Amino acid sequence: MPSPASPGVALRAVSEPVDDAGALLEYAASAQPLVALRRGDGIVGLGQVARLEFTGRDRLGRAAAAWRELAAAARVDDAVHEPGSGLVAFGAFAFDDASAEASVLVVPELVVGRRGPVSWVTRIGPDDGASDLELTLPERSAVGARPRATLAANSLTREEYVALVREAVARITAGEVEKVVMARDARASIPADADRRALLRELAEAYPDTLTFAVDGLLGASPETLVSVHAREAHARVLAGSRARGASAADDAAAAAALATSTKDLDEHAFAVQSVLRALRPHARAVQASDAPFTLKLANLWHLATDVEVELSEDASGLDLVAALHPTAAVAGSPTDAALALIAELEPFDRGRYAGPVGWIDQDGDGEWVIALRCARVDADGTLVAYAGAGIVADSDPESELAETRMKFRPIADALR
Predict the structure, then answer these.
(1) Which of 159, 160, 171, 322 is deepest in the core (most CB within 10 A)?
(2) 5 in a domain, yes or no?
(3) In the predicted model, what is the mean pLDDT of residues 362-373?
């Protein structure tokens, strides 16, 4: 159920356009940033007017219902009408039903946003008949120096991870699952007063086409859109199957070609796509996916990708789709329940919000949600834990899967160097 921190009165949100807001990261709090940015556009939140917490099996469904109720009771004056204006909440959800880490929706007191040439400010507070909300841009502060640290293996050594993958392959061969995603974590320590925005700036500059996010201590740059909803139309991008980028143009082209023709990666990708399609159909009037995957180029990886377009049913919201989609085969495996059971048995740590949904939602149920990949949890004392996983199928090579996790640690590792 929602936490006691949920609002006891209805909320009011007012959005007005402003002159060019400039670099949005400079408005975020250095210790606890609330951020959802892509190529410099997006929203940044400050303060907290409401916080809803959820745990357990139906946490996403209860979050969708709680947000629908809160939004229906709110009074919203939006003169901007851009994605992210009006009443919004930032959210981050635990991967597993049994996770000790709470799933949260955070409603900020102030939002600064930009989409192309349009910038705006949103103020959110109790709808208690008080005076009008102030709609001026807050003060900006320059992003500080980035903290320097080196990631080190945490719950699993490299040898232990190879053994874990080997056991997963044996269980697949025995017919328990068709695919399972096995993750490992790595730890570093940064100064407690370090400017977390510096890590976000590094990620945003290195991976501009991803969603750079920070919600409740979780930060990262995810290439995988779980679902993006605007005006009753939804878009999802499925990523599964990857190769390291080549050192030269010829090697890079060869890596992309090898990925596009790899039976192992194509099978892994097909599992992930079918999982998404099955989950979305009950919430959609129409669902359409591209016939074959394409290769998506990131700074350090090639991915197999498939885009899915959805026309929502009348009563569905972005969080309803998130609840239906999570966890996808891309981060859990197939069949889902068997893969989750194997993850719980073999992985010696709580994933927390790694590989869970992270993003934002507005009063209409629109918003953008990605899977929390290429990410790290940063605690108040400066403890940083990063995560990376690999999709294991019957012909997986354990050493190759270890190498894949090393590649997936790179965004966080490079941001700390």
Answers:
(1) 322
(2) no
(3) 94
